[in-house]
Amino acid sequence: MSREIRADYSQTLMFPPCVEDWVPANHPARFIREVVDAMDMEEMGFKMSEGDDGRPHYAGDMLLKVWLYGYCNRMRSTRGLEKACMENLSLIWLTGNNAPDHNTLWRFYRDNKKAIREVFKKSVRIGMEANLVGMVLHAVDGTKIQSAASGRTSLSKRQLEKALKKLEAGIEEIEKEVEKTRSDEGAAGWALPQELSDAKALREAVLAGLEVLREEGVKNLSVVDPQARVMKTQDGNRMSYNAQAVADDESGLIVAADVVNEANDYHQLAPMLQEATRTLGGLAAEENLADAGYDCPEQIAAAAQAGYEILLPMSAEKGDEFHTVNFKRDVERDEVACPMGQTLKFERERQSKSGNCALRVYRCKHGARCARAAECTKDKRGRAVELSPWHESTQAQLMKQRDPGKRCKLKRRSKIIEPVFAAVKDRGGFRRFTVHGLENVKTQWSLVCATCNLMKLYRQWLAGKLKITPAPA
Ligand code: SF4
Predict the structure, then answer these.
(1) How far, in Å, is the centroid of ligand 1 from the Cα of 292?
(2) Rounded percentage of the chain residues whose pLDDT exceeds 90
């Protein structure tokens, strides 16, 4: 019979343990330490605390290590991190056996939102310095992530109007009461009651909410997080944000991250490509892939004008030979050639329904002599085509779709970006923001994407393919 191994609670150690020995040489915590130690935190915009009244304070780099290690390991709440700093050996090692409390951790996060977003950019630059970022194919996509505010906190226009009526009645009552008290007791030492200012502040918030509903045409608004919007998620319609990312094919690194509160990706193509260029120090990928959600003529034209090569599936053509996209415009002569080679002359200009551009209308006068007029139009005055200022870039995009090589490339899109969202949502367990407001949510998404990148870089570091350059002393 073999000896049973039991815990010996009375044992003492012959030599006191050294903090440096608490985690093995290949531990992720060591990688996080190397990355943060190599950062010039002041240059990145971190507020380096001096401490109050000469009291000792926690070093900014130590708190950043705690946040990064926590996010790499699904620990995202300040109280969870506080507990882990006392119980988790890797965090005890990272903090050098100091245990910052949740208030300290939160204050660091609150005061350094902009600088925390720089950490994401730093994670991309580490990959670039190690030549890991391919710059050949990038893919952009968005994923809906639930806001911290639940659907129960959302109010419809009718509910807000009801609340406004109630508030106004309440304010009127308090004001009558105030007037009565003031005339009874005189003005000396008199002040407006807090109840009245609170009710007026609430009325302002409700009025602002109603204004948003009117302007954006949305049906519900959360009182806890007025910037979140109802979006279609895997779990149904939820108060959410639209988290955007651009990923690199070769390394799988996220090279741009942002959050918007628009329920679709329609307006995000050019802004996201520009964001990627900013992060990559002015560079752009040879080709950028997107899905049909980004099929916005205005955005495609803006991205093409900025010099980006884009490839996305377009639904416009649908195999219709006489679709508007198959009419070729001669800009100099201001006329259009139809698929049968006939010329359509400029007729008039009209505003588009959305009001965002002027459409130039060209009309065909050859219908009587055209053998395929019946297939082309039902208009007795002859076929009319209305071309937007972005017609040529839409056409150029369609020409790309006809190239089998490009179509094949387009199939790579989901293989580049989907694993990134799977890493964040499924393996990383990040399915809901824990902060309120667009600005805070942007910071949290940056932190999530930064740690997603760091975990990929860690694997390269383990394989000896990545060396972190220390910050200049
Ligand atoms: S009807 Fe006019 S525009 Fe249409 S195909 Fe014939 S010639 Fe061209």
Answers:
(1) 29
(2) 67
